[in-house]
Amino acid sequence: MTAPVTAGGAPLDAGTLVPPGAAPVLRLLRSGPPRTRSEIAAETGLARSTVQARVDQLVAAGLVAGVAAATVGFARPLGEVEVPRERATVVLAVDVSISMRATDVEPDRLTAAQRSARAFVAELPPRFNVGLVAFAGAGQVLVPPTTDRSLVERGIDGLELASYTGIGEGLYAALAAVQQAPPDPDDPTAPVPAAVVLLSDGETTVGRTNDDAARAAAEAGVPVSTIAFGTPGGTITQEGVRTPVPVNEGELADIAETTGGQAYEAESAGELDAVYEDIGSSIGTVRQEEETTARWTGLALVLVVLSALGSLLWFGRISQ
């Protein structure tokens, strides 16, 4: 995907190159059967001599556009393009609090999260380091960042439920995991971009605050994308007592906003798959400036050729 290239701070618009008053003539020339000058004059309200002048202006405008594009090309303009990342570290932090036992997402929240997490990890570029953190009352680095996907997949399969929810603790553990990422073997001193993907279905009940953890992530330059997983009507039953376990989307959205990540919500396994796919696409690419001289030079050539051909075609369509 490319961002628009600009000139003087504003996107270039080919429509602005059509001379004033020539647009009606251009519309007629581009559609319908050939017309005489008299017919065009009658339909546009212009004199026959003015019709010919407008055609001359259109041909000249095409040449001017070609020259303008060539001039931009000679200036070696820059445009933003999305290119695949070669390396990055992604830490997946998963809530394993008791509320993840809720069955409002089939077959239950944790099982659905495990399935989607495995698919997400499998689709990441092979040179990406992937780590795994589980958190309930405390955060634990289960798998330090590695390119060995089998280790991460086994860690995901082995997730077990525990009491309490400490989202802040989970995020601190994820930041600790980022620090354990191996250096780039081709450039050991180069910093490797890192991101955290944090999935939770509840709100913090113990441990350090979400705000403190989010500020720590922001200071470290690590964006955190959050996934609020579950439905407002989710419940669990403990010792015969049914307890509501709704998702607190606001807490997670605040973390994403503070750290420069994205906040997502998913109420089903299918929605969670889609969220992971979107996150994978954004993590897997980076926007960078690239010289677009070739693009503009090619456009200049096309415009000049089309202008020349257009002049022959248009003059052939206008009867005396």
UniProtKB/TrEMBL annotation:
Q: Name one Pfam family in it.
A: VWA_2
- Keyword terms of this UniProt record: Membrane, Transmembrane, Transmembrane helix
Which residue spans traverse the membrane?
Answer: 296-315
SUPFAM superfamilies on file = vWA-like (SSF53300), Winged helix' DNA-binding domain (SSF46785)
So which domain of life are we looking at? Answer: Bacteria
Q: Which PROSITE patterns match?
A: VWFA
Q: What Gene3D superfamilies does the entry give?
A: von Willebrand factor, type A domain, Winged helix-like DNA-binding domain superfamily/Winged helix DNA-binding domain
Q: Which InterPro entries is this protein grouped with?
A: HTH_MarR-typ, VWF_A, vWFA_dom_sf, WH-like_DNA-bd_sf, WH_DNA-bd_sf
Q: Where is the VWFA domain?
A: 89-279
Q: Please identify the protein, giving its name as recorded.
A: VWA domain-containing protein
What's the source species for this entry?
A: Pseudokineococcus marinus
